Amino acid sequence: MGRRGIRYSLEDKLYYIHLVEQGQTVSGIERQYGVKQAQVNQWVERFQAAGIDGLKRRKVRQYSSELKQKVVDLYLAGNTSYSQLAKQFDISNPGVIYQWVNLYTSGKSLKTTGRSKTMNTGRKTTQKERIEIAQWAIANSLDYNAAVQQFQVSYGQVYAWVKKFRRGGPEALQDRRGKDKSGKPQLTEAEKQELKVKALEARIAYLSKENEVLKKMKELERKDAPQRLNIAQSKRSPKKP
């Protein structure tokens, strides 16, 4: 089922919910359609809680720095997940919380912001660019918004290119005439090799960033361990008469 516009329509959401109700797994939906499992689970939960009204688009919400700090502190304290916190605080996407945690553990400010704007209009691209962008989005766990910012194209373009690339490979990203608007009929071997290297570099950079976040979180946990131990010991100590 294709996607219209730059966001999922109500029809799209109901379609994926129907697939789940028919017994298809969310992991299977992600593999086939490129929709993240957390997103499908969120739609199912909202539909079960409020019906169709729960699936309608919400107004852009501003998140205060105080709320961000509270959510980040709860996550770093453990015993919860991005999805649980997103549901608890009515946050549009668990990935938003991941970004807050990443900013905080990197020593950056949690300023009051709304959801980031995406480009509504696309731009002309060559087949090589489309392949590079699709590979980059896949390497970064289908982070379409990040790809929009990285390459200055529209959300709809990225989504469509990733879908075509996963179905038909590089050849699927040629234009309708079978060649790029630049006049090149096909990619050279050097260009193909260059794209493979870029895809690998993008994945390595993504995994490196993920690993750095985990390291900083473990470091925070290590620093907090003595304090937690003292609190636990004080609770176990018998009170003086």
TrEMBL record:
Pfam families, A to Z: HTH_28, HTH_Tnp_IS630
Biased composition regions of type Basic and acidic residues, renumbered to the chain: 173-192
SUPFAM superfamilies with a match to the protein in the record: TrpR-like
GO terms for MF: sequence-specific DNA binding
Residues annotated as domain Insertion element IS150 protein InsJ-like helix-turn-helix: 129-181
UniProt domain Transposase Synechocystis PCC: residue ranges: 8-128
Superkingdom of origin: Bacteria
Region of interest (Disordered), residue spans: 170-192, 218-241
UniProt xrefs under PANTHER family: INSERTION ELEMENT IS150 PROTEIN INSJ
Assigned protein family: Belongs to the IS150/IS1296 orfA family.
Protein name per UniProt: Transposase (Transposase, is3 family protein)
Source species of the chain: Levilactobacillus parabrevis ATCC 53295
